């Protein structure tokens, strides 16, 4: 019998998480095999909007401009999430006014929908060497010391592929997670939401939300009038809208229902002409897997956590999971890092997932479903803090400093530059920024006062040679970087490929310390 095909990584699922993982593995030179049980990419209308932290990642992946182009015209402030009694207003409360964060990131929010972004990720992943096999599902897997044997089924025929690692990007009801014996922890299913997509002329009713009727702004209106709770939102196609009814405890039986009438009643517009386009029911859940790793199996996206959509960070977090996992996976499969680096996927990403889950639950309760309040909701954080303020506070691939308080969150407007935090954004004199320097590999930032003999550059070259991993050195001549990165004259900061600070030296150069930091981060201290 011939031995099965061998690939470095099999990814189950071609949604946000799987495609993102494949694309970013490609940027690090590792070709993945993505298998998707459906015959093509999903067409279901789900997420809309990609937050700026994910746009930073997508720029590193080489697709940020494609994503902006797909979303079409936009400007700052074109995202309106409001709470209102009725569609025609008045607005009682604005929840999100604009999601651009110019003090924190050079990137802008994109209003592209999941249906627009996924094909871009898929094309790019293939450009970078991935293969996507549609109509192919992971049936089961077995792992041993040398790899994972993945059993695939295509057109009823089963065959095996051998991989170094298996990435479970197979969504909320992940079969791979189940087979791995990983339980979900959290609030479980919160309820069932009927979604109705329809076409109607709402020009007059939406006039108070500037630009929404013409499709220039995305709007999500939580309707809270007594007896008629629901959520209305625009879809990107002018004249086409979505309406979510409030949660029901059990799945509904909608046989024979007049959905157009439900829209009219829900929007309190009894004479509205409504053409129903599509109807579906979605369960809202709020759960996080008890671990994100099981040996050679790594969980990303909804397989790792599922959150209610309020707050819009479920899909974005799925994209970011792929971004944060890919450099580690690539470093391990190419032999640059020790295999135990992959254990930090759980240590770093699970606390963030737990934070996002509780934030999205709190948003659901305060914006739309007060009946779910049980006194355990967290204090809501603003979107910028949720996107940019999280830290890898304990157990990650960083060299922690003495005195680090282990805080999971810090204010992205007052960054500390501590190891385990996102490398702060500093605009540079040439019009670019520190953020533009990150993404391809390790970066050492140092200042021009680090000695006329360029000693950090020499130290980095020596260490790169000894460790066998490149370190790009950038000399930054800007007082703001000292402040934001918390380093004095002669200091340096080592930034990981995912633009998180790995280590910093607040004093003068030391090749030995830099080498130690690289070895700690790459799990090669032995
Ligand atoms: C109604 C709704 C609205 C939402 N709105 C937003 C929003 O505004 N913003 C936001 O950020 N997020 C939103 N989300 C959440 C977002 O859509 C999800 O977080 C995102 O789709 C997760 O991506 P994923 O790749 O992890 O999983 P999925 O998109 O579920 O993809 C998993 C894929 O795996 C495939 N698969 C499953 N099992 C196998 C197998 N055994 N073998 C091969 N393939 C398999 C599936 O067919 C599927 O294509 C919303 C979700 C819903 C339901």
Task: Write up this protein.
The protein has 526 residues and is of the alpha/beta class. The protein has 3 domains: 5-71 and 107-184 and 288-383, FAD/NAD(P)-binding domain, CATH 3.50.50; 188-285, D-Amino Acid Oxidase, Chain A, domain 2 (2-Layer Sandwich), CATH 3.30.9.10; 397-521, 3-Layer(aba) Sandwich (Glutaredoxin). 26% of the residues lie in helices and 27% in strands. It has 12 helices and 22 strands. It has helices at residues 16-27, 52-60, 64-71, 114-127, 175-179, 259-267, 314-333, 343-367, 383-388, 455-467, 479-485, 511-521, and strands at 5-12, 32-36, 48-50, 79-84, 91-96, 110-113, 131-134, 136-144, 147-154, 157-168, 184-199, 218-223, 230-234, 240-245, 275-289, 293-294, 297-299, 305-306, 442-447, 471-476, 492-495, 501-505. The strands form 4 sheets. Strands 1, 2, 7, 8, 9, 10, 16 and 17 form an 8-stranded mixed sheet that branches. Strand 13 and strand 14 form a beta hairpin. Helix 1 (16-27) packs parallel to helix 4 (114-127) and helix 1 packs parallel to helix 7. The radius of gyration is 24 Å and the shape is globular. Residues 12-18, 35-38, 42, 46-49, 114, 137-138, 169-171, 175, 282, 301-303, 309, 312-316, 318 line the site of flavin-adenine dinucleotide.
């Amino acid at each position: 019998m011939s031995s099965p095909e061998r690939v470095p990584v099999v990814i189950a699922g071609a949604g946000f998480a799987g495609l993102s993982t494949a694309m970013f593995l490609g940027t690090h030179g590792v070709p993945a095999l993505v298998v998707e049980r459906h015959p093509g990419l999903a067409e279901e209308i789900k997420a809309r909007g990609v937050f700026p932290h994910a746009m930073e990642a997508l720029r590193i992946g080489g697709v940020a401009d494609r994503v902006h182009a797909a979303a079409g015209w936009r400007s700052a402030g074109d995202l309106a999430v409001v709470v209102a009694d009725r569609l025609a207003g008045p607005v009682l409360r604005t929840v999100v006014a604009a999601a651009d964060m110019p003090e924190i990131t050079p990137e802008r929010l994109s209003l592209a929908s999941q249906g627009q972004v996924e094909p871009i990720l898929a094309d790019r992943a293939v450009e970078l060497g991935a293969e996507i096999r549609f109509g192919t599902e992971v049936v089961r897997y077995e792992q041993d010391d040398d790899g994972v044997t993945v059993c695939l089924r295509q057109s009823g025929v089963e065959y095996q592929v051998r991989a170094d690692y298996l990435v479970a990007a197979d969504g909320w009801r992940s079969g791979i997670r189940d087979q791995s014996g990983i339980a979900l922890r959290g609030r479980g299913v919160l309820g069932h939401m009927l979604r109705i997509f329809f076409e109607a002329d709402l020009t007059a009713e939406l006039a108070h939300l500037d630009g929404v009727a013409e499709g220039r702004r995305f709007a999500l209106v939580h309707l809270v009038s007594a007896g008629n709770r629901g959520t209305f939102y625009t879809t990107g196609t002018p004249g086409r809208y979505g309406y979510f009814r409030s949660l029901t405890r059990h799945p509904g039986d909608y046989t024979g229902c007049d959905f157009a009438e439900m829209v009219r009643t829900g929007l309190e517009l009894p004479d509205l002409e409504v053409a129903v386009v599509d109807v579906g029911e979605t369960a809202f859940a709020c759960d996080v897997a008890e671990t994100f790793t099981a040996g050679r199996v790594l969980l990303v996206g909804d397989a790792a956590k599922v959150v209610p959509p309020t707050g819009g960070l479920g899909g974005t977090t799925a994209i970011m999971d792929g971004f944060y996992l890919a450099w580690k996976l690539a470093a391990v499969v190419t032999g640059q890092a020790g295999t135990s680096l992959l254990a930090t996927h759980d240590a770093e990403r699970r606390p963030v997932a737990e934070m996002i889950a509780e934030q999205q639950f709190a948003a659901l309760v305060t914006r739309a479903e007060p009946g779910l309040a049980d006194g355990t909701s967290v204090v809501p954080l603003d979107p910028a803090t949720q996107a940019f303020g999280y830290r890898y506070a304990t157990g990650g691939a960083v060299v922690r400093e003495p005195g680090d308080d282990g805080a999971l969150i810090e204010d992205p407007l007052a960054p500390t530059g501590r190891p385990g935090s996102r490398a702060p954004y500093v605009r540079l004199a040439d019009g670019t920024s520190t953020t533009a320097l990150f993404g391809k590999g390790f970066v050492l930032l140092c200042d021009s006062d680090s000695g006329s003999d360029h000693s950090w550059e020499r130290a980095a070259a020596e260490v790169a040679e000894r460790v066998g991993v490149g370190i790009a050195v950038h000399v930054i001549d800007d007082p703001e970087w000292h402040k934001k990165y918390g380093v004095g004259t002669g200091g340096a900061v080592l930034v990981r490929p995912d633009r998180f600070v790995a280590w910093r030296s607040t004093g003068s150069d030391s090749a030995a310390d830099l080498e130690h930091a690289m070895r700690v981060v790459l799990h090669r201290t032995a």
